[in-house]
Specification:
Layout: E1 5-10, H1 12-15, H2 23-32, E2 38-44, H3 48-61, E3 64-68, H4 79-87, E4 91-93, H5 95-112, H6 121-126, E5 131-133, E6 137-139, E7 148-152, E8 158-162, H7 166-180, E9 190-198, H8 202-215, E10 220-229, E11 233-243, H9 247-260, E12 264-272
């Protein structure tokens, strides 16, 4: 059974344009370095109902999903609460996560030359960052010890929750991949093989594309048109992608079909994942 990877990016600041998302390209990079690929990504604002719906889909999917943002303790941080609703379980204090928070607060007090007061309103409030859906497992945070968490739904989907800050989130995601997904690394090598086609319309190429997918199981055909490329001008990048072992035959079939159609072909591109 193929494991799919997904990404949920939470935060009004992304959707409003106040901050530019950096997670999507980085997660693609982290997965590709391990022979894995991202199947989908969702962007969700700080709306509890929408976050809950997105997480419910993830928990039911059977996929491995990373969720960034919204796990703090301010009113606009709604991811922890939404995860509990999506799972149908209560929120509860996680002793190890809260111990790490207290440890970090003591370190900060020491750095500032202050006396640590575990019962101060601020420190008690910070412990909310260690309140997770029942049954959650922590994800260590090497940056400041404020843990993320992982949960698995009844549908088999595992969602791994990390902060929105890249400096924290990316090492935590790498930890999850290396600790829990190493058995999947480089297990299904994928290849893309494509060519630039000039002077053709996608509609005229569609029958060939459909035939390639029909005749070569597991192979997908892609068509990426460009109308104003600074180097190649108007063209279509037409190619096949899928399991590396299946690509040579599909590629040969595609090239033969293009030749038969009299297509004007240029540069070939190959990418291995």
């Amino acid at each position: 059974m193929t494991t799919h990877f997904g990404l949920i990016i939470v935060g009004d600041e992304i959707l409003s344009g106040k901050r530019q998302d950096k997670h999507l390209p980085k997660i693609i990079e982290l997965l590709a370095a391990r022979g894995l690929a991202l199947s989908y990504a969702d962007y969700v604002g700080d709306e509890p109902e929408r976050i809950t719906q997105a997480l419910a889909r993830a928990f039911a999917s059977g996929d491995t999903v990373f969720s960034t943002g919204g796990i703090g303790a301010t009113p606009d941080d709604q991811t922890r609460q939404s995860a509990a609703r999506a799972l149908g379980v209560p929120l509860q204090a996680h002793p190890q996560a809260q111990a790490l928070i207290s440890e970090r607060m003591q370190e900060i007090a020491l750095e500032r030359g202050e006396t640590y007061d575990a019962q101060s309103p601020d420190n008690l409030h910070r412990l909310n960052m260690g309140v997770f859906p029942a049954g959650a497992r922590i994800i260590p945070n090497s940056y400041n010890k404020i843990a993320g968490f992982s949960c698995t739904g009844s549908g088999g989907g595992s969602v791994h929750f990390v902060p929105g800050f890249p400096v924290m989130a990316w090492p935590m995601i790498e930890w999850v991949l290396d600790q829990h997904c190493a058995h999947l690394f480089h297990q299904a090598p994928q290849t893309e093989h494509s060519v630039l086609v000039f002077g053709a319309m996608e509609a005229s190429l569609t029958p060939l594309m459909e035939r390639i997918e029909r005749d070569h199981a597991g192979v997908r055909v892609f068509s990426l048109p460009s109308v104003d490329h600074p180097l190649h001008g108007r063209h279509i990048e037409l190619g096949v992608k899928g399991p590396s072992a299946a690509i040579p035959a599909a590629w040969a079939d595609l090239r033969a079909g293009l030749h038969q159609a009299g297509a004007n072909c240029g540069t070939e591109l190959v990418r291995n994942v």
